[in-house]
Amino acid sequence: MKIFTNKDIKTLFIGVSLFLFCNTVLSQIILWRFHRNSSPALFILSLLMGCGILFLCFCYFHKQQKIMETAVAEIDDYLIGDTDARIECDDEGEMYKLFHSVNTLVSVLNAHIENEFRTKEFLKDTISDISHQLKTPLAALNIYNGILQSETENLPDLKEFTILSEKELDRIESLIQNLLKITRLDAETIILEKNFENVSDMMHDIEQHFAYRAKQEQKELILSGDNEITLFCDREWMIEAVSNLVKNAFDHTEAGKRICVEWKQMSDMLQIVVEDNGCGIHSEDIYHIFKRFYRSRFSKDTQGIGLGLPLSKAIVELHGGNIKVDSVLGKGSTFFINILKITKL
Predict the structure, then answer these.
(1) What stretch of H or E contains 263?
(2) What are the strands, taking DSSP E only, across 12-142?
(3) Which residue in 236, 219, 249 sits closest to 309, CA to CA?
(4) Which of 219, 238, 304, 336 is most buried (most C-beta within 10 Å)?
(5) Around Cβ 126, how many Cβ atoms within 10 Å?
(6) What's the predicted TM-score (pTM) here?
(7) Angle between the N-to-C axes of helices 39-79 and 94-151, in degrees from 0 to 180, rounded to the nearest 10
């Protein structure tokens, strides 16, 4: 039987069998020699045999518990990052076969992690190389487009063409920059430089960045929040995360609409809210908007590239937070950034 391939189980069964055999033999001897006064002797013998069997069982299960505790400790070490952690499985038996399978699984996982890391590095390097190669022709195209604009002041049709061309060039440049950022996040090559930053100062930097666009598109950007609130974060990356939400709000609101950015300290976290009264998000899209390059069939936006929201989500999660969205079609959308508050280092 397979169960007896484990020497500990085999030892336990042999020990119990020997105790029972000895008990039977001795009982017969006592009955034969002391058949009239055998009760006390049989009681003591049974008691000794029972204690012996209990001792054997205790030793066996105590050893099994130690083996399992060691195995669990090795698994825990692996889960917290020790990729060299392994369970000893030099003995025979089904349990040791299980341990061997766990070790094999760990080796396979390590191989997959290594392959994934290499793939991410390759992707990062490839996109980085392509992006850098595109920067030079893009810069040249922007210069050529600027020259064309200055030469077409008296040609309205060509002037409109150069304006549209400039927008498309800006869109390509934005795509390249976002691809670079999101691949760096994927490859985990970013080291956040966290400090206690004043949230009001960061939000005003965002306001200044969008001031010209708000004026041109006749939209209102409203800020509200306590000027003394601070957040332990990487300033540049957190500004990037909120800016993408604000840009998304601008992209989906019409002239005369408003975008509100509010920050507030809650009991155990900081919340940043970006709200607009634009077109809102269709119910079919609400669970997909953070997917890369996702474009809704209901959206009228032709400028978005589908990377801004996934980038914001990745940045916030890198800070230990999360993003939630609440939207009503035709009435607007509200994005909530929630990050646990750290009061001191």
Answers:
(1) strand 258-265
(2) none
(3) 249
(4) 238
(5) 11
(6) 0.59
(7) 20
